[in-house]
Amino acid sequence: MRRRTSRRILVGILLLLLLAAGLFRLRVGEVFCEEVNAFPGVTMTAVEGTASSTGITVEVLNTTALDISSGNEALLGLQMELGGQWYWLNAFPGGITTTLEAYLYGSGRPRELELDWGRSYGPLWPGHYRVTKWFSAEQPAGDNTDFLLAAEFTLE
């Protein structure tokens, strides 16, 4: 009897581990090899002590003379570092809902954004991550330059 119970417990633990590994694999998407934080004069940094498994506060600072804009707080992406490579995390199907307002970032005025990915991605596991957000700079000639900013953080 004791042996049978031990086997059932062991099988249950193995099934839970396999389920967790499968869920982890579903959440990790494509490798990301492009450049981030490459637009001179515009930065996005994590505010120290604000990272949690479901959100973070970031500070965006525009030190250029250009008009910089982005979508609201819901328009974000998440990446996880694994083995020295960055991988996109997959949002839940239908998990991202947003309105279409645009935020403007004037020169020299830092702006904090409270980013919440709980409904879109669920809670994150311990690891090294970065939150990403697309921005657009209106050039003097009238065209726009789009660029991706990222702020790194670690969850223990």
How is this structure best described in words?
With 156 residues, the chain is of the alpha+beta class. It has a single domain (30-155), classed as Immunoglobulin-like (Sandwich). 19% of the residues lie in helices and 44% in strands. It has two helices and ten strands; from the N terminus they run αββββββββαββ. Strands 1, 4, 5, 6, 7, 9 and 10 form a seven-stranded antiparallel sheet that branches. A three-stranded antiparallel sheet has the order 2-3-8. The protein starts with a helix and ends with a strand.
Question: Could you write a compact summary of the structure shown?
Answer:
By secondary structure, the protein is of the alpha+beta class.
> Based on the structure, what is the oligomeric state of the protein chains?
single chain
SS element count, helices: 2
State the distance separating the first and last CA atoms. 40 Å
The helix content is 10-25%
Estimate the global geometry from the Cα principal axes.
elongated
Question: For this structure, what is the CATH class?
Answer: Mainly Beta
Q: How many strand elements?
A: 10
CATH topology: Immunoglobulin-like
Low-confidence stretches: 14-26
Question: What series of H and E elements makes up the topology?
Answer: HEEEEEEEEHEE
Task: Tell me the fraction of residues in β-strands, as a range.
Answer: 35-45%
Mean pLDDT: 84
CATH-scheme architecture? Sandwich
Query: Largest beta sheet, briefly?
Result: 7 strands, antiparallel
> How many structural units, i.e. domains?
1
Determine the structural class based on helices, strands and strand pairing: alpha+beta
Q: In angstroms, what is the radius of gyration?
A: 20 Å
